[in-house]
Amino acid sequence: MSAIRDDLAKAIKNNYLVELFAKGTNEQFSVGYVMQQDDKFVLVEAINVDGELDGVVVFRKAAIAKVVTGTDYLKSMATIVSLAQQRGYYDIWNTDRLVTKLLKKDAKHSLLKQLLKLAFKHDQVIQLSGRIKKHGDSYTGFIHSEHKKYLEFNYVDMFDLSERPQIAVRYAEIDEASFHSFETFNTTAVIESYMPGDFH
Q1: Structural domain range at position 31
Q2: For residue 96, is it within any domain?
Q3: Which domain of life is it from (predicted)?
């Protein structure tokens, strides 16, 4: 864990683009810029394959297998990011501004809880994944209510818009939380079209 913490600290200091590998996966990884870390979590600006800033993600450090820098893939991605910046489509959701606001806040809570509270306060759709419901599933939806050890989460099933299933998600079950991404904005558009009264 200390090696991962040190690798993350270097990435923050040097503004490296990194690959973050989740435990249990050798080929799947997330790409992004590491913005901040606390004892248990790390805040990342995610980059998609088109070089676009694709949301803010908080990862649980205990779920990270390794942090990789300097690969040929990351060199390629840095070039693609540069193109996106030159052409004006790098940050279409103004995510950089959101991260700046988030980093200015006094840290009374973990990075995970800060992100969840921000999403709840502003009725933002969020994606949660980890060991939820003993599976490791991913859910996209909105927070219905917050509690001391868990939150009530209404998720969207794109194949059945007639109901909004609600599950209780313990904070300890969340390994990854993201919002302000293409997926969360797409889901927001669906909710606003078919379930407009559903936000808290």
Answers
A1: 1-195
A2: yes
A3: Bacteria
14-66: pLDDT as tens digits: 999 999 998 877 778 999 999 999 999 999 999 999 999 999 999 999 999 99
- Domains identified in the chain, total number: 1
Q: What is the amino acid identity at position 165?
A: P
Look at residue 151 and give its three-state secondary structure.
strand
SS3 state of residue 198: coil
Do 19 and 67 form a contact (C-beta atoms < 8 A)? yes
Give which of 34, 51, 47 is closest to 86, Cα–Cα: 51
User: Quick check: 23 and 32 in contact, CB under 8 A?
Assistant: no
Residues sharing a CB contact under 8 Å with residue 197, sequence separation 6 or more, in sequence order: none
Read off φ and ψ for residue 79, nearest 5 degrees: -65, -40
Distance from C-alpha of 6 to C-alpha of 42, rounded to nearest angstrom: 12
Q: For 147-159, what is each residue's pLDDT tens digit?
A: 999 999 999 988 9
Tell me which residue has tokens 């840290």: 107
Q: Looking at the domain assignment, is residue 200 inside a domain?
A: no
The DSSP output letter for 197 is: T
